[in-house]
Amino acid sequence: MVQMDDVSGQGTTQAFMWSINSPATMALQVPLGLAKELQQNVTAFWAGDELHAAKWLTEFQRAEGAWEICIEALRPGPLPSCDEELVQEFCAQTLARLARSFASRHHLSVQHAQRDLLAALLEQHVAGQRTVWKQLALALTCAYLWTGTWVPPSRGYGELPEQVRRELLTLPVDLLFCDRALPLDDPRLRQAAAVALLEACGTAFEELLLADGDDAACLASVGAWLGALRRALRLMPACDATKPLQALAGHGVLLLSRAHAKPAESAEIALQLARWQQLVCNDDLATMLGPILSSIFDGAAPDDCQSLLPLLADLSAGCWPRAALGDFAVDWQGLAESAMAILRIAVGSCVSEGNEDSSTEVADAEAAFAVWERFAVTVQDGTQAAAATLDNMLEEDDDSGRTRPEKRSRMREEKNWRASPEQIAQCEALPQLFVGFSTVLLELMKMPLGPIDIEALRVLWKLRAAAEAALGAWARLLGKTQNWMEIAFAPLQQVCLVVSASGEDDFLGDEVWRDVEVALWLSACLARSARSEDNPAQAPASAVLELQIAMDSAPEPWKTWVCAAASSLAGSAVGELCTRLIVWMLERPPSASFAPEYMELTELPYTESLAQLCSQLPAGSAHIALGERLATLAFAERPSVAMHEQTVKAQSFMLRAMRHAMGGDAALLCNGLSQGVLPPLCKAVEAEAQSASHESEPQWFATRILFATLQAALPPVESPSMDPLHPALVLWKEHWSYVDAALMQWPQSPETEQPAVAAIEAITAAAQALPLCLPDVVSLLARSAAKHEMPDLELNALRAVSNGVRCPPMNAGQSADIVAGAISSAVEAELSQQAELLESPSTLAAFFQLLSDAVRPSPLGTAGAGPCADQLRPKMLERCALMGRCLALVPLGLQDCTSESATASMLRFMGNLVGNEEKLPKNAPHRAFVVAMLPELCASLCHALATLQHLTALDEGLVAAAELLLRLASALPEELPAALSAGIGQSHVSAWSGGQLQRHIGNRASYPKQTDWLEEFQQIVCELQREHRKVSH
């Protein structure tokens, strides 16, 4: 065997010789001639023979003796020839790959010797190829972590070069807490790695911050270390969480200088420090974080805006709100100024010349507004909401269905924070912050001057929508106190004073009207979220009547814009003020503006406000004149330039307002529609149907209005009617032929899928408001699904209808029979065209989403929460042949599935089909075909876990896969192990990785939280995919 120097002084040569010749590893003898073939195939691969040589090299990496041959090839150190360099590069990569399973590859008695041998090889190659020493550093780090002996590289005589030391410091955090993480399935190894990181953090910070050269890479490594240390502390509840902060503080001066010089690159450090508040939020953290934030934001340039937004988002979810309420000693005012500065930059980039249609700039501005929204939400709800997200993804129950107590001694409890209502009410910082934020909004959200640019206005409307969400969160936070109302609506009061102080003959310039319009807009956003009935006369909406004379005399285009903003504010009115404002709005419809083409911006908010006002009219009394006026506006003819994407939606709101105006008198409403509105509308629909076949893109405008009108006639969803003589039911039956034709006869628009979209929306609402329509609705949807090749709309609608059946008033058993029959009919139709179904990811997703919900059981410990009060599931399971065919489709659909939604829906279907019983009863109708298909299902699942990249994200697909495995383990404990082993064998991953997956499923009860188990499951899936990629390529 190879003779090697004892570099480590620990008997490396003897240990290495013993490891190869020991009985435990005798099977790993190097095949004769394999080393020679290695050189030939590496040379051939780089010469262009990728097909044959690549296959041989892949098989070599899995061959017995590959580790020893690679050690031998690297033993001489860097070699001079090009062919030899290529071989050494490949051998280093092979060692790095094999070292990921270091513990299973080497017997426990020789692991330390093999580790030391890797260390010796690294020393030999530090002056050679960069690729070689980097791969050897990776292999060595894996070996250290698998043996629980990682330590930072030593300094002094014979020390490694700086770039190698930095690599060795960066690798452990990459291999422990990210998608490259080693699958350390032994808790003792994870604990040892966590201890090693905590003990070495001072050395790591010093080495990385003092390193010359690439400052950005060093700063990124410091941030990665902080993130890894925070995760390591979760495994060590008794450890002092401030120790890493104190270690970093020892290099504070250097860190601050680098943060000021490279603010964007330093943002990750500050972000990781901000997340430390989940563990400890005290003076040590504040002392570190405050100066770093100041250095970053003081040194930031406008181009750094995008890089700093994630940092601000994290700060707004914890440290910044805590600071504003006096619970954390950082400069909350400085953070607010930085957030406002970045908001100005982001919005300015959107509205600057040449950037009107840039989605990237708009996205940055929306993120900047979201920072302020997150701040307000965190103050009100605390930090526990975000922390609980993963906890809700999987049920926190043990196999018996009982909630299992947390084993808190094994895992550090992350601290959540929530301010008390008294703290919020007494906090002086919050009003100051709101005034600053709203002042910036009044500046940035003003209408542009000069010629009207529709594209610029569309961008402004998008920005206002994002700002409105933030304003709504602040309005809900600060409440309805008199002090808050004065602060919030001070801009509105100011413009009212300016306008009222001017005489009738005074000319108000553009700047004044800009101020009036933006103040009305901001006040409308706040008032809708803080609507109060305490004092309607003093409500902000009363300002509309105060300004009406001035607005009517405003020049265009300002009259249009201020009236539109005033209409939005009017929608916040309450009490008797509503009637006056309804009259005011009806006299100033958007159609009367100077430019009907701008109705795409003004009509929908106007009709929403009008519907809101009409909903507050006195119940039980009909306002016939008002209803007629609303009907006239809703069905008035309009020029083509006034048509827009939201036209039908706006008219739907107008019809809703008309329904409210009728005071809930269904007979009066339906009679009016039947006699005055529907006859001419039906004629227009028939004309559209005749011409649609000759049009490439029919709009179906009248048809969409017809269905919206029928929908407006429905009783409220919260009060469904079972009366067979209900006027709305009679009206629907009279016009059902139009709905049927829209789905079964008339051609659909290739772009919008109208009129099917409008018809399905209407009948879905009808099934809930008029349950007696259920048989007709589901029958039509099933027939339409059978008629169309890709019936996504119909399948999704069937799912919505089946989930929305109310029992009572409907009989659960009868409803389940009706729905199950329709679903079965639609499913049969799709299975008859299986090839087309598999080629359409969206249809496949809709198909299995429908099935998944149809067999969904109630959560453990509950009853009646499934569709049709739990009666639909047994009706579907009785159809054994049909369910078996659907289950047989899963392996075909999962194979190479690129759709995240389709993958998740198939996995969810299998999980729901199995159910959540502790053990599947022998007499369960679906047990036989589930057990029969279990090996094939496990094979397809393992293949999906090993190949579908979207399953590596902690998202619905991965959660569905985890839930399926846990349900199978509980329901079929005897059958699953063998089926899963066979599936792993077919997925081209090592037996070691497959064994890890099996052990992890069996060890679910040992994890204190389901989310901890899920995170470990994610790392195992990443490892499966990593192995499969290497085998495949």
The N- and C-terminal alpha carbons lie at a distance of 32 Å
Strand tally is 0
Mean pLDDT: 86
Contiguous uncertain segments of 5+ residues: 1-30, 385-410, 533-537
H/I helix tally:
50
> What portion of the residues fall into strands of 2 or more residues?
under 5%
> How does the major sheet shape up?
none
Shape: globular
* Proportion in helices: 55-70%
Q: Compute the gyration radius: what is it?
A: 34 Å
User: What is the structural class?
Assistant: mainly alpha
List keywords for this structure.
1033 residues; mainly alpha; 50 helices; 0% strand
Quick structural summary:
This protein has 1033 residues and is mainly α.
Give the topology, please:
Blueprint: H1 12-21, H2 34-47, H3 50-61, H4 66-74, H5 82-98, H6 102-105, H7 111-125, H8 130-147, H9 162-174, H10 187-210, H11 215-234, H12 243-249, H13 252-261, H14 263-275, H15 283-299, H16 305-316, H17 319-324, H18 332-351, H19 359-381, H20 384-387, H21 421-426, H22 429-444, H23 454-478, H24 482-488, H25 490-501, H26 510-529, H27 542-552, H28 558-570, H29 577-586, H30 599-614, H31 624-634, H32 647-661, H33 666-692, H34 701-712, H35 727-734, H36 736-744, H37 756-769, H38 774-787, H39 792-804, H40 812-831, H41 834-838, H42 841-854, H43 872-877, H44 880-894, H45 900-914, H46 927-947, H47 956-971, H48 976-986, H49 991-1002, H50 1010-1032
